[in-house]
Amino acid sequence: MINQDSIYSSDFYDFLTGKASTAMSRRMQRNFKEVGIAITAEQWSILYNLWMEEGLTQQELANRTFRDKPSITRLINNLEKQKLVIRVNDKEDRRSNLIYLTKIGRQMKGLTMDQATRTIQEALEGVSREDVEQAHKTLHRVYKNLM
């Protein structure tokens, strides 16, 4: 159990505000930019999910990336402008669009995954495997507590 004093520490509020997550996103964008990739970390999260499974609806992408529908719409609009994804009407549900990668979107996978891996390596420098495993267990528990 956590005592009340630790709940009110500034470290806990840094955790709540997503300080580490924000720093990771910024570093990943910087790493992308260094190698000429013109996408944001948010856009990458959409592409990543499509590399895992194409033909997802905007709602499925919202659920998988923990974003609201307006944010997903904006991200997909921008990815479409960059010719990385296309929307296709769902034949089974005319109200929905299915999101697919374009050839260019598929070709970006290798280079962007290299930069994502680089970002994770930079973030975990000096962190032991045991600490990573413990952090994963803790964050998974926090997530389960809130679902």
From TrEMBL:
Keywords noted in UniProt: DNA-binding, Transcription, Transcription regulation
SUPFAM superfamilies xref list: Winged helix' DNA-binding domain
GO molecular function: DNA binding; DNA-binding transcription factor activity
Domain HTH marR-type: 1-144
InterPro entries on file: HTH_MarR-typ, WH-like_DNA-bd_sf, WH_DNA-bd_sf
The protein's name: MarR family transcriptional regulator
